[in-house]
Amino acid sequence: MSKRKFIFKGGGKELVLPVTPDSYQVEKGINVEVVNIHQLGDAILAGYGTLATIKVSCIFPASRYPFSDSSDPDGYIGQLEKWVKKRQKLRFVVGGTGVNIPAVLQSVSYGERDGTNDVYADIILREYRQLKAVKVADTGANSGRPEPESTGRQLPPYTVKAGDCLCAIARKFLGDGSYQMAQKLAAYNFGSRDPNILYAGEVVNFPPTL
């Protein structure tokens, strides 16, 4: 049986892991919130699906082995670090399986262990999902938009939760959930980062005026 290929594609480059990992992990799920209802107790509110997290542990040999003719760990690590720095959108594929996921590299950690100069690496990717702006017809006063939670004062920072997106945050706090507003929030907080990329635990600040 031939070994599976682990392939990363992005920015016109393709990287195939030189040694097939022993295992990999793809974690998917939904947002679940537990609420306490008076006189009834706890209840579960099941939300929408979360973005997948992919974890791969691998080795980049520094010498040629019977199972690998690659001997350039620096080249592999360098390419992965470039993708992280550029926030490059990738396609992660595991040959012979249904794993074919658009993703971004969240982190790459690596080091040597046994004096062979081989490099061991742990790679974490997060699924990338393209958000599409929905155009809403203007039907009059406020166009059906909710009022901002506060006006005339600086809004406090908001800590991102799993499943959040900038459009939803902008709609909740600013009364405008358009993609254009999400782009403004992204530029204010994260510079040139794609507004579709948002991680739980990050802090979103609101400018005095938008």
Automatic annotation (TrEMBL):
Record PROSITE patterns: LYSM
List where this protein forms a coiled coil: none
Report the residue ranges that make up the LysM domain in this protein. 156-206
Which Pfam families is this protein grouped with? LysM (PF01476)
Query: What name goes with this protein?
Result: LysM peptidoglycan-binding domain-containing protein
Q: Which organism is it from?
A: Anaerotruncus massiliensis (ex Liu et al. 2021)
